[in-house]
Each structure stands twice: as structure tokens, then as C-alpha cells.
Specification:
By secondary structure, the chain is of the alpha+beta class. It has 19 helices and ten strands. Strand 1 and strand 2 form a beta hairpin.
């Protein structure tokens, strides 16, 4: 049996492979059979046969059912669609009441979408573009009219492109929805009511997809037409900018327009003031009417926008007047054109950021509900919405006038430069370039970073602070330099303690004044700073106690004069060579003092330690000091010879004063020691020697030892007399002198006992 089963499996496996190959071949032939008619239809389209076409069944719709309606003949397409809709109406008659109502509503919606699709595919009827004016020369107003056309086209292009992007997103959504409905449709049983309803949804979704596709095609066609129109207008606008003429405008008309624009600014400001007063009355009432408050605030927003629009109109009128004056050679020679251009840019940069705020407030008013259900609140809300729409229109007009102002100002600058030649033209162009760059730098310097209290901090304010602090430091450095060189001739800065002390105090004063001036330059309120300092005084007192202590100690050292730069000092020691710190004072800073030891090591000592610790200042008042160096010689040595040798050794040591009256070396017999005559050498050394005590001591002892050795004078070793009791065999206690018998020479310890 196992052998038979194995043979059967070996027979069935090739048979299964053969069957699979035949299946694949059949599927391939079927695919070619389906594609071949389509390929032939693509190469040789056949005329549709109206009599042979039947609408697809709603419960057996293929995946490409829409292709049956996508025919070239519009009449045949309409006939098929109508026949399909009629078949759907017949099919839903057999549904239950609930399903029938739902399907009937879906068919009504589908019929409306089909009609809308026909209209959309026919193309939207758009107003024809007005012809672009073409002429040999343009006036300033005609050129601004072309610019207005260009702005309108740009706004419409922007709107059309936004609609195209929305259509793209909607198509993606409809495509995913179509796929979901197809999967749901295929999962339902044949001839079930659910499949009928889902089939209608599939048809509706496909019609919506075609509708959005047709609308997107119309939008793209509109976009292309607008781009062509924009190119024509832009080309003509460039031509107009290069071919401007004064026209028939008179100086009286220009002045009248300028006066009217100036009066409009004043009137707009008065309107803003009046509305603010009305808002104050509303807010001052006992029961605040919120709907009236919202209306007044929106009216103030509109009035503010109208005021800024009036200012732009006035600035535009001034720029136009300057251009007309330049073209008619009646321009005021004292007019600062670069300053006028800077003022126009500043006005634009001040107004533009407010537009977004006004637009946002107006849109919130349009969508916000009434504050209550009263008729008065509803009426106020309707008025506020009307005012909001007017505000939005003003915002767009402000953008247009701002664009006109910058355009006219640029033309004015160009014509001013074009009217010059040679070096003057180059110089004017350079001034305009530098001025424009400087204006941008100023704008960047005024950028608001953050606030300290009520004081805004800007990059320009920070740079100003740093400049004042750097200037204060430079003044301090110059003052200290002059003080140092005003000292005694040949005296270095580090060797002038008085000059150093005065320079350090002056440095602290100048830097303190500079810091206050730096903070005051940005408008820092020192009153609030004083309050903050008072509130934090306790914490600062505990947390920075050591720092404040060292700072005050440094001021005490500088003012008292007990320690100066260049002094040689010792801490916790009385003489050179002790264990305390010894060295030359190099710097006296706010926190610590720098002491340079004889090993050329800088030691930073806190100022408080120098004030509270016992300190030896070797060079406080005297520039010289006396050193005591002890030594000893053997008893019996000639004292006069020792004195001569010591004096000669002192003369061999550098920095020792040997010929100064009252400051000559002295040798004193100091003590009779246990093993030597103890002398003490008194040496007066100069200021440089005071700073080198170990060197003086070592050189003197070196020279002294050499001369004593050459003279044969002994430097004794320490001596002690040792007394040994010889009769160690006697018992302890007093011994009589008569009974004491010394040992005989022949008494040997190793002999026989007595």
C-alpha cells in the first residue's frame, strides 16, 4: 500500500502542474480576447449601435460601467443616461417602503447631478476680458489703472489656484469613497435591496467624481486664460512705466487733490475719536450692552482702517505731486527724495501688519452669534456684520493703495536718477542704495524681541547698550592710562600704587555710570528695578554674602592704602622664610587680590582675607628693610676676625646696602650657645632685595661659609657633655666616699668571683 500511494502521488503531481498551466493559458487567452476588441476600437472606432445597447443591471454592474456612457455622440449619451435612470426607477419599485423612499431620494439627487454635469461640461459662461489699452504714452493715472487690472488678475488667479487645489483634494476623497463602495457592492448578495441601494450610491459617487473633474478642467482653463491675460497686462504695464507723460493735469488740480487728501486724514481721525468716545460711554454704563459694545468696536475698526487708507491716499498724492513737479521742473530743490521714499516705506510697514488683525476681527464678527435673543441685539449684530464687510473691503483697498504708493515712489526715484549724469548720478545712486540698506538695518534693529516689564527689548537697543558699555570701558582705560603716565618719570604702571588705586576707583565709577546709562538708553525704569532690588535684598544678602564682602573689602584696601600694587606682603608669618604666603601684589580686583610669589606663581587671595588676617607689608612706607641672619662659630674664635669676614661676605651679596649712612651692615654677638658663639647679621636691603628674602639669606650664608673655611674658623657641630657613673655594681642608694674603691686594671669581668 505505501508503494502504491507513492506511485499515485508521483502521477498526480505532474497532472496538477499540467492543469495549472492550462488554466493560466486560458486566462491569458481570455485577457487577449477582451483587449483585442478594445485595441481595434482604439485604432478603428466603430459607430455606436443605438438599438443594440441596453442599460446595465443595477445588481450586476461591471467595474467599468461608466465607459458605456462615455460616447462621442452627445444625443446618444443623453439617451443612454435617460434610459439608465428609467431602468433604475423601474427597479426600485420592487423595494420595501423604507428602501424605496431612500432609493427614490437618491435617484432625485442623481438626476440633479447629471443635469449639473451637463452644464459643467458645457463650460461656465465667464465675462469676456476687457481689452488691454495699448497706446504710445500713458499718464500716471492710466499706468495705475493698468496696475489695478494686474492686481485684480493676481487676486483671481490666486482664488482659482486655491479652487484647483481643493478640487484635487476632493477627487482624492471621491476616489477612495468609490473604492469603498465597490468593495461593499461586491460583498452583497445578488438582487438584494442593499445591493440596489449601494449600486445607486456607486453611480452617484461616479457622477460626483466626473462633476469635480469637469469643474477642475474649467478651472484650469480659466487659470490658463488668466495667466495669458496677466502676461499681456504686465507687458503693457512695463511699457507704460517706461513711457509716462504728464498729460493735461494742471498744478491747481494736483494741489487741490493734495489738500483734499490731507483734509480726509483729519476727518478720518475725528471719526475715530468720536467712535472711541461712544465706546467709552457704552463701557461706562451700569449695564453694559454687549451687542452695542461689539458694534462700536467693529465701527472703530472700520474707522481705523479708513484713517490709514486716508493716510495712504495722502502719501500717494504727495508722491504724485513730487513726480509731476519733477517732470515739469517745478520740484522744490530742498525736498529730500530719499527721506520721502523712506517715509513711504515706513508708512507701509506700519500699516500692513494691522491689516491681518482687522481682517481677523471682522471675520469673527461675521460668524459670531448675537449676544442675546433680543431684537435689539439681533439688529446690532446685523449692523456689525455690515460694518465688518465694509472693513474687509477697506482692507483690500488699503493693500491696493499701498501697492500704488510704492510703485509711484519707485518711479519717482528712477526718474530722479535718470535726470542726472556722470559722477552726480553715481553719487545719487550710491546714496539711495546706502540709504535703503540703512533703512533695512534700522527696521531690523527695531524688531521686537521681548519685554522687560513695560520696556521693549530690540536688537538695536541691545547694540546700543553694548556700545555704551564699551565706550565706558574705553574712557576708563584712557583715564587709567593717563593717570599712570602722569606719575613720576620712569615709574611703571604696576610700580605706582597711588596711580593704580586712583585708576581702579575711577574705573569702578565710570563703569557704574556707563551701566546706568546703557540701561537708561533702552528706557529701562530704575524705579521698578529699585523695587525688585528691595524685594530681593534679603536673598541677595544671604546668597551673595561672600561676594559682597570681598567687593567691600577690595574698596577698603584701595581707599585705606594699607595694601597697594607693588607691595611685598606676607600672610600669617613674621619673617621671610616662614610658612605664610609671601609675594608681590600684582592686582587688586573687585573680588580678590593677585599675589605673585617668588616662584612666579600667581596666588588669588580673597579681599576679605587680606582685611581680616594679620598681614605684613614689607614695603608699605619704607622702600628698604632690614634682615636678620643668625649663625654661630666655635668658642675661642677671634671675634674681630669673624666681624671682618661677615662684613666682607655682606659686600658680596646683591641688593645689600653697604655704604648708606645709618643703613650699613652690623654684626652682633647675640648669645653664648651650648656649642658656639651665636652671632646675628643685620643687613639692610633695597626694595628689590625685600622681594627676594630667601635669595639674600642663601647668598650671604654661602659667602660666609666660604670665607670662614678659608680663615680656618670652625663652625662647630652641636655638642653635649655626657656623664657616666663608673661603679655600676653598687646597689642603689647613697655610697660613702671612703668605701668607694675603683676597679683594678687586672680585675676582669670574666675572672673568678671574690
Amino acid at each position: 500500500m505505501p508503494a502504491m500511494a507513492l506511485s499515485l502521488r508521483r502521477f498526480l503531481f505532474p497532472l496538477a502542474c499540467l492543469a495549472m498551466g492550462l488554466s493560466l493559458a486560458a486566462m491569458s487567452l481570455y485577457a487577449h480576447a477582451q483587449l483585442l476588441p478594445k485595441a481595434l476600437q482604439a485604432s478603428e472606432p466603430a459607430e455606436p449601435d443605438p438599438a443594440a445597447w441596453e442599460p446595465p443591471a443595477i445588481t450586476a454592474m461591471p467595474a467599468d460601467w461608466w465607459s458605456e456612457f462615455d460616447v462621442a455622440d452627445e444625443d446618444e449619451q443623453n439617451r443612454r443616461i435617460n434610459a439608465f435612470l428609467a431602468s433604475l426607477e423601474d427597479r426600485i419599485d420592487g423595494l420595501g417602503p423604507a428602501d424605496h423612499d431612500r432609493a427614490s431620494a437618491a435617484l432625485d439627487n442623481l438626476a440633479n447631478l447629471v443635469r449639473l454635469l451637463k452644464v459643467t461640461r458645457a463650460g461656465e459662461a465667464s465675462a469676456p476680458f476687457p481689452p488691454v489699452p495699448t497706446q504710445d504714452a500713458y499718464s500716471l493715472r492710466e499706468m495705475l489703472g493698468l496696475r489695478a487690472q494686474s492686481r485684480n488678475i493676481e487676486r483671481e488667479l490666486s482664488s482659482v489656484r486655491v479652487d484647483i487645489e481643493q478640487a484635487d483634494r476632493q477627487l482624492d476623497f471621491l476616489q477612495s469613497r468609490r473604492d469603498e463602495l465597490l468593495r461593499a457592492y461586491q460583498s452583497q448578495p445578488v438582487e438584494s435591496p442593499a445591493k440596489v441601494l449601494i449600486g445607486i450610491d456607486r453611480i452617484t459617487m461616479r457622477v460626483e467624481f466626473e462633476l469635480v473633474t469637469a469643474r477642475q478642467a474649467n478651472l484650469e482653463a480659466r487659470e490658463k486664460a488668466l495667466e495669458q491675460r496677466d502676461q499681456l497686462v504686465s507687458e503693457q504695464l512695463d511699457f507704460a512705466r517706461a513711457h509716462l507723460e504728464v498729460g493735461d493735469v494742471t498744478a491747481e488740480e494736483i494741489q487741490q487733490h493734495l489738500d483734499e487728501s490731507t483734509e480726509a486724514v483729519a476727518e478720518a481721525d475725528r471719526q475715530v475719536t468720536a467712535l472711541q468716545s461712544q465706546l467709552l460711554d457704552v463701557l461706562s454704563a451700569d449695564n453694559i450692552n454687549r451687542s452695542l459694545e461689539q458694534l462700536r468696536r467693529q465701527q472703530i475698526t472700520r474707522a481705523a482702517a479708513a484713517s490709514e487708507l486716508a493716510r495712504l491716499e495722502a502719501a500717494l498724492a504727495r508722491s504724485e505731486a513730487n513726480w509731476y513737479g519733477l517732470r515739469t521742473d517745478s520740484l522744490d530743490g530742498d525736498l529730500d527724495l530719499r527721506g520721502a521714499a523712506a517715509d513711504a516705506r515706513a508708512l507701509s510697514e506700519r500699516i500692513l501688519p494691522q491689516l491681518d488683525v482687522w481682517s481677523e476681527n471682522s471675520r469673527n464678527t461675521l460668524v459670531s452669534p448675537p449676544t442675546d435673543d433680543s431684537a435689539n441685539a439681533a439688529a446690532n449684530q446685523d449692523i456689525a456684520r455690515t460694518v465688518a464687510r465694509e472693513t474687509l473691503d477697506l482692507v483690500e483697498e488699503i493693500r491696493s493703495r499701498n501697492d500704488d504708493l510704492l510703485l509711484v515712489q519707485g518711479i519717482l526715484t528712477r526718474d530722479v536718477l535718470a535726470g542726472q549724469s556722470g559722477l552726480r548720478k553715481a553719487w545719487s545712486r550710491l546714496k539711495f542704495t546706502i540709504g535703503s540698506a540703512w533703512d533695512h538695518v534700522i527696521a531690523a534693529a527695531d524688531y521686537h524681541l521681548f519685554d522687560i516689564g513695560d520696556t521693549p527689548v530690540t536688537p538695536g537697543g541691545i547694540l546700543k547698550m553694548l556700545f555704551i558699555i564699551a565706550l565706558a570701558w574705553l574712557i576708563s582705560w584712557v583715564a587709567r592710562y593717563l593717570i599712570a603716565h602722569a606719575a613720576a618719570a620712569g615709574e611703571q604702571f604696576s610700580a605706582s600704587p597711588v596711580a593704580y588705586t586712583l585708576g581702579r576707583i575711577l574705573h569702578y565709577v565710570i563703569m557704574t555710570v556707563g551701566l546706568f546709562a546703557a540701561f537708561a538708553s533702552i528706557g529701562f525704569d530704575f524705579t521698578s528695578f529699585a523695587l525688585i532690588a528691595g524685594a530681593l535684598s534679603v536673598g541677595i544678602g544671604f546668597g551673595l554674602q561672600a561676594v559682597v564682602n570681598n567687593f567691600v573689602s577690595g574698596l577698603i584696601l584701595l581707599l585705606e592704602g594699607s595694601l597697594r600694587v607693588g607691595d611685598y606682603i606676607e600672610l600669617d608669618g613674621g619673617q621671610a622664610g616662614s610658612s605664610g604666603l609671601a609675594g608681590v601684589v600684582k592686582e587688586i580686583n573687585t573680588r580678590a587680590t593677585v599675589v605673585n610669589t617668588n616662584d612666579s606663581v600667581d596666588v588669588v587671595v580673597p579681599n576679605s582675607e587680606l582685611v581680616t588676617t594679620k598681614l605684613t607689608n614689607w614695603t608699605l612706607r619704607e622702600s628698604i628693610a632690614r634682615m636678620r641672619i643668625p649663625f654661630g662659630v666655635a668658642y675661642g674664635s677671634d671675634k674681630e676676625q669673624v666681624k671682618e669676614i661677615a662684613m666682607a661676605a655682606a659686600e658680596d651679596v646683591e641688593f645689600v646696602l653697604t655704604n648708606m649712612p645709618g643703613r650699613r651692615p652690623q654684626l652682633r654677638l647675640f648669645n653664648f650657645g651650648d656649642s658656639a658663639l651665636e652671632f646675628q647679621m643685620l643687613l639692610w636691603v633695597s626694595r628689590a632685595g625685600v622681594r627676594r628674602p630667601h635669595r639674600i639669606r642663601c647668598e650671604f650664608l654661602w659667602a660666609l661659609e666660604t670665607r670662614l673655611r678659608e680663615a680656618g674658623i670652625e663652625i662647630p657641630f652641636p655638642q653635649r657633655d655626657l656623664h657616666v657613673r663608673s661603679d655600676f655594681r653598687q646597689p642603689p642608694g647613697p655610697v660613702a666616699a671612703a668605701s668607694f674603691q675603683p676597679l683594678e686594671p687586672d680585675d676582669d669581668v670574666g675572672g673568678e668571683p671574690a
